[in-house]
Amino acid sequence: MKKIVCPVCKAEYTVQEIYLPEYLLGNIKEVEKDDEGKIVVFYGRDMDLKESYKCDYCNSTFTVFANIDFKTKSKTNDFNKSYTTPIHNKPRLIFNED
Ligand SMILES: [Zn+2]
C-alpha cells in the first residue's frame, strides 16, 4: 500500500484519503488520434497530480505531488510486427519490354 506522510508530524494517510479519483485521473471527454494511433488533441481535464491537504493531527497544510508512471509490455512478444515500417505502401507496377 502506498502511504502519504505528513511532513510535519509524520501522520500517515492512504492515497484515497487525500486524492479524489476523478481529479487524480482527470476526465477526458474526447480524444482525436492520427492513423498510427498517436494522440493529436484531447478535450477535457488532464490528470491533476498536485493536491493540498490539512493534516488531521497537527493542522498544518501540506502539498502532495503524485508521481505516476505507466509502463507497457507486449503480451504477444511479436517484435517483428510491432516495429515494422512499410517503405512502399503500394506495390509498384513493372512493365516487361519484349
Ligand atoms: Zn501532521
Layout of helices and strands, plus pairs?
Layout: E1 3-5, E2 12-14, H1 15-18, H2 21-24, E3 27-33, E4 39-45, E5 50-54, E6 61-65, H3 79-82
Bound molecules: zinc ion.
Zinc ion (ZN) binds at residues 6, 8-9, 11, 55, 57-58, 60.
Specify Rg, calculated over alpha carbons: 25 Å
**Helical amount among residues, as a percent range?**
10-25%
Mean pLDDT: 86
Write down the overall geometry.
elongated
Largest sheet: 2 strands, antiparallel
Quote the distance from N terminus to C terminus. Answer: 76 Å
* Percentage of residues in DSSP E strands: 25-35%
**Ligands and ions found:** zinc ion
List the secondary-structure elements in sequence, H or E: EEHHEEEEH
Strand order of the largest sheet: 1-2
Instruction: Give the number of DSSP strands.
Output: 6
Stretches where pLDDT is under 50 for at least 5 consecutive residues are: none
Task: Please tally the helical runs, counting DSSP H or I stretches of 4 or more residues.
Answer: 3
Structural class: alpha+beta
List its traits:
98 residues, alpha+beta, 3 helices, elongated
Structure commentary:
The chain is an alpha+beta fold and 98 residues long. The protein is built from 3 helices and 6 strands; from the N terminus they run ββααββββα. The protein has helices spanning 15-18, 21-24, 79-82, and strands at residues 3-5, 12-14, 27-33, 39-45, 50-54, 61-65. The strands form 3 sheets. It has a two-stranded antiparallel ribbon. The chain is elongated, with a radius of gyration of 25 Å. Bound molecules: zinc ion (ZN). The site of zinc ion has 8 residues, from loops.
